[in-house]
Amino acid sequence: MPFERRGARTDDHIRALRALWGDDCSTYRGEFVSFENVYSRPRPAQGLVPIVIGGHTKRAARRAGELGDGFFPVKGSALELAELIRVAKAAASDAGRDPDALEITTGGGPSEHLRRMADLGVSRVTVPPMAPDGLRRFADEVIAKM
Questions:
Q1: 104: phi then psi, degrees, rounded to nearest 5
Q2: What is the pLDDT of residues 108-123, one digit of tens each?
């Protein structure tokens, strides 16, 4: 798959999965995936499997808004993250989806950073694995101040 086409392939696969999870007997015709009268078993217990789109480009943000249940911008300053979140929510709105339903995840950091992320609409942060001393320090310096 040429690098330039991987996004289109991802979009098509997401749409195919949504068709499989949404209908008892599914038919889907896309550029990369096609099937007719397919039963997918077992079906997700809660109706779907949340799809979180990762990336740090405006295209990834638009894909998250158009097709995803969540968005995980992998890197960027608070200003860059704010712009990507704005793009994702605008894309959701343009696609007729609820922009506030898009769950935003980002990396953890100092408590000031976490407050700023919450203000941007981030609902989950990830904390990289640490040695026990580092985890204890994170609890004392970040979590205790929230």
A1: -105, 130
A2: 666 677 788 888 888 8
Q: Which residue has the tokens 């004392």?
A: 140
**Which residues on neighbouring strands pair with residue 72, listed in sequence order?**
54
Give per-residue pLDDT as tens, 48-61.
Answer: 899 999 999 999 99
Stated as kind and residue range, the H or E segment containing 37 is strand 34-38
Q: What are residue 38's DSSP bridge partners?
A: 26
81-101 burial string, b = 16+ CB within 10 Å, else e? bbebbbbbbebbeeeebebee
CB 70 within 8 A of CB 104: yes
Does the pTM exceed 0.85?
A: no
Q: Take residue 11 and report the two structure tokens written for it.
A: 């979009």
